[in-house]
Amino acid sequence: MTSDVLIIGGGIIGLACAVELKLRDANVTVVCRDFTAAASHAAAGMLAPDAENIADAAMLDLCRRSLSLYPDWISKLEELTAKKDLNNTGYWPCGILAPVYQEAGEKKEFIPNHQSPAYWLDKAAIHEYQPGLGADVVGGWWYPENGQVDNQTLVKVLRTAAESLGVSFKDGVTVEAITQQQGQVIGIQTNIGFLRADHYLLAAGAWSNQLLPLTVHPRKGQMLRLRVPEFVTELPLTRVLFGENIYIVPRRNRSIVLGATSENVGFTPDNTPAGIQSLLEAATRLYPQLADYPIQEMWWGFRPATSDELPILGESHCSNLTLATGHYRNGILLAPVTANLIADVILSQTTDPLLTHFHYSRFQNTPVPTQSSTTTSMLTHPANFTNGHSKNLFIQPAEFNLQDSGLVIAGKTFQSRLMTGTGKYRSIEEMQKSVAASGCQIVTVAVRRVQTNAPGHEGLAEALDWGKIWMLPNTAGCQTAEEAIRVARLGREMAKLLGQEDNNFVKLEVIPDAKYLLPDPIGTLHAAEQLVKEGFAVLPYINADPMLAKRLEEVGCATVMPLAAPIGSGQGLKTTANIQIIIENAKVPVVVDAGIGAPSEAAQAMELGADALLINSAIALAENAPTMAYAMGLATVAGRIAYLAGRMPIKNYASASSPLTGTITA
Ligand SMILES: Cc1cc2nc3c(=O)[nH]c(=O)nc-3n(C[C@H](O)[C@H](O)[C@H](O)COP(=O)(O)OP(=O)(O)OC[C@H]3O[C@@H](n4cnc5c(N)ncnc54)[C@H](O)[C@@H]3O)c2cc1C
Ligand SMILES: CC(=O)[C@@H](O)[C@H](O)COP(=O)(O)O
């Protein structure tokens, strides 16, 4: 049995799983960066499987199961925290009324086959049942079994319960990478060092794809809270109103939560006038007397959304890593069922059949593996991936036991350590052949040039098979941090359009100087800080400056990319001493970028211990580009193997290679 479980993320999902695992005798540690940033803190707390109008049958089943677990789960939590008063979590099966302004025309009556009842109320009935609704409400559904919980107090109760059971917490700690070897997680890299456990659970909400390339992205929601004024003696609302683009959630403590916007703006923080205005307009239309209620508080949060709006639950590509993320709009509702099913997976190795529907591999073209075959290509391009070329550049003979686990950037593993570009080729066909011949798995693309169809970039984006090659959008042509941030966002959209939904990589170039193409260190640092905040995996192109490399690593960049020599100069390794210092100190991959002119220089950079190379001009401008690409691929592998083999020390004097003893004297 797995006893030590490390949970990444201390939102409701991480906490609920921690309590359940601990109750089943596991040793549990929760690592959490920032509890106040959690969606769990920001939510409205509705328990609304029916009001949410969930179309997917398996999801509806999951939500209903969770709703039915709620009463016992709440009692258990409140017992654990020695507070039997059910109001402590604000759990309130108060029902949800969903008024409409236009009748949809469907048959409206009690639906007896519904697993939970739903009643249609016509205009007269709804106004009688809920006085104070806007005059233009024409009817609505009543879902008596839906309800709410005060998510902010619930997570506090969960945290207290977990602590009282002995769950250990590492607060304010950021997980930077999940380190894997041969289908196993061997530990997690954090800002306080390397942590190990028997088993790992990823419950990092909207930030999950900073650690694994899952299709989880943030969907921002703005919220506000009103207070029932003193002069209103009785609670005016005793059920949730779930209207069009608005929900009104009255708490028993006389606050009223209004939500929420649904914005696709990455991790852009703050409340905005437009967001708050839209909520207030919709709320006062639905329940006009709110117009006079005092505003108490505003906030925002990031729902962990997936492209099909369903959570990702259960096993992963690694046998000791389980996933519980992507709960999107229903994570508060789904907490108890998630905790149960995930504890079953981790501790009893039993997978409820329902979990097949929420398996991570549904976003790939691969079939869902059975329990006995757990490895798929989610994070690691297959080791024998040849990128269309007949030669496999990555095969390293087993007898050498090289223990090279691949290049890991922002949790994604690549076998090839060579990245190439797409510029300067004489034709698209030559570029395609060169990319294939190099064996590279990452190709950088200048977002601006592709968007503007610059000469040589027409049709470029479509010319490569992005099912096989990971796109590294770059901000070439940007002179300021602001421009680079804008272009990075476009790059992310471009990658999405080309089918890489989960690609958050950006090669950051801020280059104001046209003659030497030297990057602006200050602009690069500023842009990197912002882009990291927005959830990008940032790969900054820099001069070979060890201090800057350190600062960029500290702000959360996924790699550093020091230059060997100016871009396109083919001068070779001109910055060796500084690159060596960067390599010695870096905890993120060091990618030597720009200026490499020949395979010998590529090999030399890898022998120094660089993790990867980015080479464009030396390939594109060679007389025979595909052949040079092949040579660069071989040189990268040779340099890496030589680095792993460990070169001999350099000596001042000769030392004979043949033995000096036992020779025949003449
Ligand atoms: C405005 C809004 C309204 C909502 N309303 C409802 C509702 O009414 N009903 C409902 O059921 N659901 C609702 N939701 C959805 C629900 O809040 C989420 O689905 C749920 O909170 C997700 O929980 P989680 O634990 O997965 O993620 P989160 O609560 O976001 O927690 C993730 C945690 O992981 C931590 N973390 C992330 N990355 C790292 C890292 N690298 N290292 C360490 N820690 C890390 C974060 O700091 C965070 O604390 C709403 C969400 C929003 C934003
Ligand atoms: C394509 C790209 O990103 C280049 O800006 C990169 O820096 C490579 O430089 P070389 O063209 O000198 O290899």
Automatic annotation (TrEMBL):
HAMAP family xref list: ThiG (MF_00443)
Alphabetized UniProt keyword annotations: Cytoplasm, Oxidoreductase, Schiff base, Thiamine biosynthesis, Transferase
Family: Belongs to the ThiG family.
Reactions that this protein is recorded to catalyse: glycine + O2 + H2O = glyoxylate + H2O2 + NH4(+); [ThiS sulfur-carrier protein]-C-terminal-Gly-aminoethanethioate + 2-iminoacetate + 1-deoxy-D-xylulose 5-phosphate = [ThiS sulfur-carrier protein]-C-terminal Gly-Gly + 2-[(2R,5Z)-2-carboxy-4-methylthiazol-5(2H)-ylidene]ethyl phosphate + 2 H2O + H(+)
Enzyme nomenclature, EC number: 2.8.1.10
Pathway field: Cofactor biosynthesis; thiamine diphosphate biosynthesis
Thiazole synthase ThiG domain ranges (all copies): 409-659
Gene: thiO
Pfam families attached to this UniProt entry: DAO (PF01266), ThiG (PF05690)
UniProt organism field: Sphaerospermopsis aphanizomenoides LEGE 00250
Subcellular compartments: Cytoplasm
Assembly notes: Homotetramer. Forms heterodimers with either ThiH or ThiS.
Annotated protein name in UniProt: Thiazole synthase
UniProt keyword Transferase, yes or no: yes
Main function: Catalyzes the rearrangement of 1-deoxy-D-xylulose 5-phosphate (DXP) to produce the thiazole phosphate moiety of thiamine. Sulfur is provided by the thiocarboxylate moiety of the carrier protein ThiS. In vitro, sulfur can be provided by H(2)S.
NCBIfam families the UniProt entry points to: thiamin_ThiO
Catalytic center residues: K507 (schiff-base intermediate with dxp)
UniProt binding sites for 1-deoxy-D-xylulose 5-phosphate: G568, A594, G595, N616, S617
Annotated FAD dependent oxidoreductase domain residues: 4-344
Origin superkingdom: Bacteria
Gene Ontology terms for molecular function: glycine oxidase activity
